[in-house]
Amino acid sequence: MRLSPDDMIFWQYGFIKFNATIAFTWGLMFVLAVGSRLITRKLSTGLHRSRWQNLLEIIVTGIEKQIEDVGLRHPRKYIGFLGTLFLFLALASLFTILPGYEPPTGSLSTTAALALCVLVVVPFSGIKEQGPGSYLKSYLEPTAIMLPFNIISELSRTLALAVRLFGNMMSGTMILAILLTVTPFIFPVVMSALGLLTGMVQAYIFSILATVYIAAATRGRTARSVSTPEPRT
Amino acid sequence: MLIDWFTVGAQALNFLILVWLLKRYLYKPILDALDARERRIAAELADADAKKSEAQEERDLFLHKNEQFDEQRAALMNEAMEEVKAERRRLLDEARTAADALSAKRQEALRAEADNLNDAIRRKTQQEVFAIARKTLKDLAAVSLEERMTEMFVQQVRTMKGGTKETLAQTLEAASEPVLVRSAYGLSGEQRATIEQALTETFSADIPLRFETAPSLVSGIELITNGQKIAWSIADYLTAMEKVVASLHQDKDLVDTATGPPTTPKAGSKADKPKPETQRQ
């Protein structure tokens, strides 16, 4: 039994390989990019606009509002990264209703890649907003002794991000696969709906946590200590 | 192995590409469209505000003009009312003046009529009195009225006394022309001689005389020199009678203006009986 779509390899040349994770990711990328392009090709700035444009406007303004609510002062600077994170994870979960589809987020490689992206973006944003000295100094607070713990905290939360998402998505897929072998009718549909809900929640949690980390990094230590709760799911 | 590091790298790259794609094809166009719409709505709202304020200004202007118009209308109306009042007052004054003039004219006419009537009555009375006196004197004394008048005049001259006599004497002495004796009738030579004699005796001087007939004296004789006059005339009696008649007329006018019935005055009850007089003109 496959635990990850990484194991479904279509083509391999030495270290380079083309597996299901990459294939489904490309599929999602294609749907997102082409769908956006098709809808935004004929945008209206007037009072009358298409339903698809309304949908996209709701999604984009909703994401922007969420980012602003978490505490980022300039949400438009981060909406590219954080919004894409959420849309990619949400669409990856949503497509689980399609038969034969395996979410790329069920692969630890994908979640690790996303977590690594967050790990890079957080200090990058902090340094850009506060300057390198001020940001790096925040690792020495409240005292210099806390430096290793701060670094461990940074790494562990990245690991937690990756593993949490992977565990939830993978478990959903696994439960569904096991249930299909036990009770092939009705019950897997319920579990699939539950998995869909779980996937949406995980997408929300992942992107919100990334937002919180970035907000904490850009607002200095005071805000950081107040607004960086570590969720337990 | 759960983590395939090539896949991790590929997925990270895929994710970054997706970020770029969505930035280009999703977020930017949508946010730009939202901004454009917001700008447009803001512009429309600003335009609406401007139009509203403009409308408010025009409304204020209209109200202001309306108030001014009302004030002007009220002022014009007041002015017109004042003019009408003044014109009315003027017309009333004119009418009153005209009425007064008419009334005065009418009173004048009435007075003239009364005067004419008085004059006629006086003349008639004089004539009647003259005729009655003449007849009476003739009947009683068989002496003509003219003779009696001459006697009366002569008697008056002879009975002159005191200051009057002296004054007249001085005047007669100073007279350069003959003294004028006027009578209502032509004096006979005897009568003229009697008068000359009386004057000569009275004033102890030879006084030249000039005789004239003046019917207006009615019945009488008068001597005139340098403003001094000696006269005896029925006209004096007639003047007294005229006063009585005039008073009768006045009483009658008063009775006419009142609503009560006319009263008959006591004619002649209070009439002064005139005396022959010597007067200064």
TrEMBL record, chain A:
InterPro entries (UniProt xref): Alt_ATP_synth_F0_Asu, ATP_syn_F0_a_bact/chloroplast, ATP_synth_F0_asu, ATP_synth_F0_asu_AS, F0_ATP_A_sf
Membrane disposition: Multi-pass membrane protein
Subcellular location: Cell membrane; Membrane
CDD domains: ATP-synt_Fo_a_6
Lineage: superkingdom: Bacteria
Statement: the UniProt record of this protein carries the keyword Flavoprotein: no
Regions that span the bilayer: 20-39, 78-101, 107-127, 165-187, 193-216
UniProt KW keywords: ATP synthesis, Cell membrane, CF(0), Hydrogen ion transport, Ion transport, Membrane, Transmembrane, Transmembrane helix, Transport
Listed SUPFAM superfamilies: F1F0 ATP synthase subunit A
PROSITE patterns: ATPASE_A (PS00449)
Pfam family, one: ATP-synt_A
Role of this protein: Key component of the proton channel; it plays a direct role in the translocation of protons across the membrane.
Family to which this protein belongs: Belongs to the ATPase A chain family.
Protein name: ATP synthase subunit a
UniProtKB/TrEMBL annotation, chain B:
Protein family membership: Belongs to the ATPase B chain family.
InterPro entries listed in its UniProt record: Alt_ATP_synth_F0_bsu, ATP_synth_b/b'su_bac/chlpt, ATP_synthase_B_chain
UniProt-annotated location(s): Cell membrane; Endomembrane system
Top-level taxon of the source organism: Bacteria
Self-association and partners: F-type ATPases have 2 components, F(1) - the catalytic core - and F(0) - the membrane proton channel. F(1) has five subunits: alpha(3), beta(3), gamma(1), delta(1), epsilon(1). F(0) has three main subunits: a(1), b(2) and c(10-14). The alpha and beta chains form an alternating ring which encloses part of the gamma chain. F(1) is attached to F(0) by a central stalk formed by the gamma and epsilon chains, while a peripheral stalk is formed by the delta and b chains.
Pfam families cross-referenced by the UniProt entry: ATP-synt_B
Chain coiled-coil ranges: 38-127
The protein's role, per its UniProt record: F(1)F(0) ATP synthase produces ATP from ADP in the presence of a proton or sodium gradient. F-type ATPases consist of two structural domains, F(1) containing the extramembraneous catalytic core and F(0) containing the membrane proton channel, linked together by a central stalk and a peripheral stalk. During catalysis, ATP synthesis in the catalytic domain of F(1) is coupled via a rotary mechanism of the central stalk subunits to proton translocation.
Ranges of biased composition (kind: Low complexity): 257-268
Biased segments, Basic and acidic residues type: 269-281
Classification lineage: Bacteria, Pseudomonadati, Pseudomonadota, Alphaproteobacteria, Sphingomonadales
NCBIfam families per UniProt: alt_F1F0_F0_B
Record region (Disordered): 252-281
Name of the protein described by the UniProt record: ATP synthase subunit b
Keywords assigned: ATP synthesis, Cell membrane, CF(0), Coiled coil, Hydrogen ion transport, Ion transport, Membrane, Transmembrane, Transmembrane helix, Transport
